[in-house]
Structure formats: C-alpha cells, structure tokens
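Lab meeting, item 3. Inverse folding demo.
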C-alpha cells in the first residue's frame, strides 16, 4: 500500500484490518491470500510482479477455502457429512435451526426405542409375534430395531422433556392403549405437531423448520390427525 492513510477495502466498505479481525488472521495473511487469489485467475498478473500469464499451482498443492458470506448476510459454513459419497454439503446456519432441541425424526426414533423393546420383552424376543402385534412386517421390525437399539432405553422421556410443551406428552399408559406401531406414532404426532405449532405462534414455516420436516408434510400430517 502507498501512504499510511490509504487502506485496502474488502467486502464492500470493510477495511482490511477489520476483515482480518473477523477472520482471526493478521493483515499480512489477508494480503497474501488476496495476492495468491489474483495469481490463480487465468490471464491476470499479480500486481508488481510483471507476470503475463497464470502461474500453475505446485504439484500436490491444495487450496484451503475460507469462510464466505451467504446471500442473507450470514456466514455460510461448510459441513462435512457422513454420506455414502463422502462429500460435503454447504448450508447457511440459521439461528432458528439451533433452537429446536430435537427433530421430528429424533422424537419417533426415541418412541420406537421404548415401544419395540417393550414389545420384544413381552414376546420373549420373538420377532414374528412382536411384529404381528405392532402391525409391522418381520423385515421392517428387524430393520427398525437395528436402527433404534443403540439409543439409551430412557431416550423417549428425555426427548419429550426437551420439547418443553405446556401440555404434557402422552403417558406410557396412553401409548400402550394405541397397541399398534402406527397408532402409537399417531398419538405422539397429534401431541407433538400441535404443541410446536402453538409454540411457534401458529407459523407453519417456523414449526416445520423447528422439527426439520417440510411444510407440506407438517400441514398434511397435522390435518389428518386433527380430523381423525
């Protein structure tokens, strides 16, 4: 830079010193990143170097992406997921998404951990009899039990408390009275969807986001259970 009063501006009118503080880097590191970025653009020469063409990166060099600004003005974070493809997904962190406590899927996994374990105990571990009582196929019974068995036995109680609903969750006796797998989950959803809907001031979008389900699923599922 030329002159002590002249400062480089980045990201609109943000000064380089402010930008460096946001990134947790020194001014020299930020400037070095900007210079390297200019050198990587084909046909552009780095200022002051007199290079007329793009200089290829050294073999084995891997660039490390820094934080980027999302369209809404927040910081977008790249999260690495455990997908089969081993790739990563980039998503903006929404303040509301961190408030929910538990998702719709987590609630029903916890319910199944209790429901299937109790039914298996009644039938002394007999998959066929347990599946018949719950209205499931033997295959579905085996698969679902394998999915939820690693959860702690009291997961349902902990998850229900995390909802913090003014109306208490269905009791064990109420759920047992529903008998079948579908009946138990209908009873849970009838309570869960209504409570979250009221907690979010009857805002369908916010209620669906809180439970990590689509607006369409929330609307149709709630309408079906309320009319039953």
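The presenter then showed the designed sequence:
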């Amino acid at each position: 830079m030329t002159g002590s009063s002249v400062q480089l501006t980045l990201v609109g009118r943000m000064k380089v010193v402010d930008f460096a503080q946001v990134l947790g880097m020194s001014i020299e590191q930020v400037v070095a990143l900007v210079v390297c970025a200019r050198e990587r653009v084909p046909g552009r020469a780095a200022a002051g170097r007199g290079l007329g063409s793009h200089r290829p990166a050294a073999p084995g060099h891997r660039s490390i992406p820094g934080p980027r600004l999302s369209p809404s003005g927040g910081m977008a974070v790249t999260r690495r997921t455990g997908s089969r493809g081993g790739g990563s997904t980039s998503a903006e962190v929404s303040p509301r998404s961190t408030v929910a406590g538990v998702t719709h899927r987590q609630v029903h996994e916890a319910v199944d951990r209790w429901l299937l374990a109790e039914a298996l105990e009644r039938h002394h571990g007999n998959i066929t009899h347990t599946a018949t009582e719950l209205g499931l196929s033997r295959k579905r019974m085996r698969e679902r039990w394998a999915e939820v068995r690693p959860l702690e036995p009291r997961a349902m109680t902990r998850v229900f408390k995390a909802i913090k609903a003014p109306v208490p969750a269905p009791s064990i006796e109420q759920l047992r009275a529903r008998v079948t797998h579908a009946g138990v989950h209908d009873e849970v959803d009838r309570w869960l969807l209504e409570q979250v809907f009221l907690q979010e001031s009857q805002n369908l979008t916010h209620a669906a986001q809180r439970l990590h389900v689509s607006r369409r699923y929330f609307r149709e599922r709630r309408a079906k259970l309320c009319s039953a």
